[in-house]
């Protein structure tokens, strides 16, 4: 690790989640959901500063209990259903740089809806970003059964149409090229790409591939039940931690 490299990690966690009310601090196997993202980030070998961006005081208090900094509250206009991620993270970068009197070289967005993100995932993503000199590294997973070749749209005339032209109709998944979808865990990028290009991707983006049962991004109650089931079967990643 190069101690001169400054890396800011931001966990965006607004209070107004609709699918699962108060999702970010809802208890999952004994701990608030956001704790499963805070903990590996705090143990990263690369992250200089970790902050939670929220407009919600209860989320702020719980985040601080688990070791994250919440040095400011996010403006409410950046916490609505229509608020976008990029201006939210840009706001956090500018506020953190002003408060800590430093300029970061790399910025991470770590989503609190991915409770199986590990410190290894975070550090390998940052290492790849630095070593490859890419604009960004984004975590992805195999799209599996949701391959674009199998997707349909319904036209204005109520016709069922192929979203993407199939070379062979109803070809088996094993014969389709592998397609990836964002997993939601990690968006790592150079600061200038985020702040000047208004992008997490840039022109040169590299993948960090997450496989297996760890590819849960909790959005619905079914996702929540699945995450609970996986933790019961494979273990709680916070089990060995003592939070006082």
For CATH, the homologous superfamily of the largest domain is named as Spore Coat Polysaccharide Biosynthesis Protein SpsA, Chain A
Instruction: Tell me the helix content.
Output: 25-40%
Strand order of the largest sheet: 4-1-5-9-6-10
CATH-assigned fold name of the largest domain: Spore Coat Polysaccharide Biosynthesis Protein SpsA, Chain A
Shape, per Cα inertia axes: globular
How far apart the termini lie comes to 29 Å
CATH architecture title of the largest domain: Alpha-Beta Complex
Number of helices: 6
Tell me, rounded to a whole number, the average pLDDT: 92
**Strands, count:** 10
Q: What is the CA-atom radius of gyration, in angstroms?
A: 19 Å
Domains counted in the coordinates: how many? Answer: 2
> Major β-sheet, in short?
6 strands, mixed
Beta-strand residue percentage: 15-25%
Low-confidence stretches: none
Category by helix and strand content: alpha/beta
Write the H/E string, N to C: EEEHEHHEHEEEEHEH
CATH class of the largest domain: Alpha Beta
């Amino acid at each position: 690790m190069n101690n001169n490299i400054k890396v800011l990690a931001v966990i965006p966690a607004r209070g107004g989640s609709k699918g699962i009310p108060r999702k970010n601090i809802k208890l999952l196997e004994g701990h608030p959901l956001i704790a499963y993202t805070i903990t590996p980030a705090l143990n990263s070998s690369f992250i200089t500063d970790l902050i939670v961006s929220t407009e919600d005081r209860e989320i702020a208090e719980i985040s601080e209990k688990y070791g994250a900094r919440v040095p400011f509250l996010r403006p409410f206009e950046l916490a609505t259903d229509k608020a976008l991620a990029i201006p939210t993270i840009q706001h956090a970068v500018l506020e953190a740089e002003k408060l800590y009197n430093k300029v970061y070289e790399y910025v991470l967005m770590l989503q609190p809806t991915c409770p199986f993100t590990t410190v290894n995932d975070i550090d390998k993503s940052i290492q790849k970003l630095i070593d490859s000199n890419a604009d960004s590294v984004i975590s992805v997973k195999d799209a599996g059964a949701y391959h674009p070749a199998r997707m349909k749209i319904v036209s204005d005339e109520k016709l069922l149409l192929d979203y993407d032209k199939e070379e062979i109709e109803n070809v088996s998944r094993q014969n389709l090229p592998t397609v990836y979808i964002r997993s939601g865990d990690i968006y790592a990028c150079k600061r200038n790409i985020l702040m000047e290009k208004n992008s997490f991707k840039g022109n040169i983006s590299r993948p960090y591939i997450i496989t297996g049962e760890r590819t849960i991004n909790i959005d619905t109650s079914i996702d929540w039940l699945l995450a609970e089931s996986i933790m019961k079967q494979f273990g709680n990643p916070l089990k060995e931690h003592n939070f006082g």
